[in-house]
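Hi R.,

As promised, here are both runs. First protein below:
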Amino acid sequence: MVEVLIVVAIMALVASAVAIAALKYYQSAREKTADTNARAVRDAVNAWWILHDSGTCPTMADLISAGVLDAASPRKDPWGTPWRIECSDVAATVVSDGPDRTPGTSDDIRVPPKIG
């Protein structure tokens, strides 16, 4: 009976170590997914501008209704926050608030990245 308890304890320790290691890779995968999805949204904004007034900043609904973004595309980032589309003269930036869901922090994901 003691031997079985020792084996179970060892298995629990190994499982805990694997879970901790997997969490690090899971977070990295979410960040890469957010970056990829933000790039797709930005490309859709640029395509939308070809069809519409480039002085207007589209919403996700505009992009989907115009057919430049697939209806199955995620409308939120991997952390459940809606994408923010920020437009200036002829440039669009797609922003995710990142894991902390707070705008303007160091973990925000911006496409293209903020320079400076």
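And here is the second one, sequence first, then its structure tokens:
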Amino acid sequence: MKKILCISPSMNTGGAETFLMKIYRKLNHDEYHFDFCVSSKTPGFYDEEIRSYGSNIFYVRPKTQSFKQFKKDLKNVLKSDSYDAVYRCGATGFMAIDLWVAKKCGVKIRAFRSTNAGTTENKLRQVFNVLTRRLLTSVCNVKIAPSMLAAEYTFGKRVAHKKVHVINNGIDIEVYKFSKHNSEEIKRKLNIENKKVFLHVGRFVEQKNHAFLIDIFAKYLEKHNDAVLVLIGEGPLKEKVCNLIESYGIQNNVIFLPITGHVEEYLHAADVLLLPSLFEGMPNVVVEAQCSGLPCIVSDTVTREANIINLVQFCSINDSKQWVEKMETTCRGSNSELFAQKMKEAGYDITDTSKSFIDALFNN
């Protein structure tokens, strides 16, 4: 049995954590065992499922709290079992410290997966990230990214095009295949049967650019009042977004929903996915939406690799008028159930992704 220790701030429903869980579900647990190492004491969304597989969740003190204690805690975890590999996900070289500790403890395979293609950090921190890139590339001997844009941001262009495994954000194709039944059930549940439904899935953080999202939706409502915006997620800026919605006076047209393990049902019920993010590595929700036959309007900062089967349109976040025009002319087609097969043919089946992930780690 191969044992892998996966390090993440927590095991919540972020894209990186969800990617990891999708892979773990598909693996033969008699052949591959994952343990998890987190730095948050708050229970994560996936904790119960993780433990149901017989996996451990270890807590280590955050390195920002005490680097000495963090190093001690991580060493103790690494020495508690014979791990064949350590896996860390993130966007910057600062996380290379985790793999440096693993190297010191004798772990042979040290994998790092880029999760993003940008940052909202200040200039000083951005410079620090570039400076630590060399440490990252030297301590991690397996480099993974969901897109070439994310690979270039994290590892640098020279390394990205030579030594990085670009592995698709695979999904369970049958789960996300459009279901008319799901669509009708959700619309009835939310009382939005006769509305045009715009959907956004993402944490309430600066990266997701909710202020712009609310602005363009308010502009759309000036001409078309038969629309709703469904927001799925949690995060530190949620209250601020609520206040902004009230200031526009559009609260009756916005629906907040908590994090769900069945986002596919809402993808089926929507007419358009909106994603005006400041940056993304390879957004999971855009992959999932396309499998559901849901057209997407996303910011032009998102990698063009996200347009897998021609359901994605790119707009500048400096041009709200362009977004509103796209929102007016874009809607789900009548053949949504056909796109699942196209996604499978494009290499986005999670079974293939899981195989690619294991091959990158152990057949590198």
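A quick note on the second one: Residues 2-170+349-362 form a domain with the Rossmann fold fold (CATH 3.40.50.2000). Let me know what you think.

Best,
J.
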